[in-house]
Amino acid sequence: MQKSSWLTATVVAGALAITGCSQSISDYKQLTPALELDRFFLGSGRAYGVMHDWRGQQSVRFVADLCGEWQQGQGDLYEVFYFSDGRVEQRHWQLTQGADGEVRGTAGDVVGEATGQLAGNSLYWQYVLRIPYDGDTLDVTVKDWLHLVDEKNLINRTTLHKYGFKVAELTLSIQQLDANADCSALKQQVAEIAAG
User: Minimal CA–CA distance to 162: which of 123, 134, 131?
Assistant: First the structure.
């Protein structure tokens, strides 16, 4: 009887521990400094990232140049990625940040709309990304956590899922370089890459 009770207690404790591992954006609402996209992604920035495949093995690295422009909660974020395998890719996010912390965004390789929520120093958002794959394209669900470390530095942890299974994980750091930078040059580079 005692052995059975001990086993039951262990199973219940394990289930509670697993449940407790699930994070919610509201867990971060008291943390500072507060992440505001129209302040952090304003002007020029630089990102450094590493992608790991489903086995946890490093698959590709990249450096990215970023530049953002904002007006009344509406923003354009331009990104150019330089991958370790020689690829150069671009993304142009069109973002909306609501007064309640709701975030919405669209981009050329995003299917539909990205949606998320800001709280404290963090943003969680999710979207479907269409990526090149084996001569065709593949749609993957992206779950994105961004955590502001200080006013100029942010850590981004991303998982990519297909059919409910994690297929890759991305970790990157982003630094704001100059909030007053002009985005014209990067905007032009993004347009040229998009045009092929």
Answer: 131
Q: For the chain, which domains are there?
A: 33-195 (2.40.128.20)
Please name which of 116, 55, 103 lies closest in space to residue 75, comparing C-alpha atoms: 103
For 48-71, the pLDDT digits (tens) are 999 999 999 999 999 999 999 999
Cα 76 to Cα 92: distance, rounded to the nearest angstrom: 7
Residue 190 clears pLDDT 60, i.e. is over it: yes
Give the Cα separation of 163 and 141 in Å (integer): 9
Distance CA 26, CA 11 (A): 28
**Complete DSSP assignment for 39-106:** HHTSEEEEEEEEEEETTS-EEEEEEEEEEEEEETTEEEEEEEEEETTS-EEEEEEEEEE-TTSEEEEE
Query: Quick check: 112 and 127 in contact, CB under 8 A?
Result: yes
Q: Give the chain's length.
A: 196
Residue recorded with tokens 């779950």: 143
Token pair for 96: 């909306």
Q: What confidence score (pLDDT) does residue 17 get?
A: 39
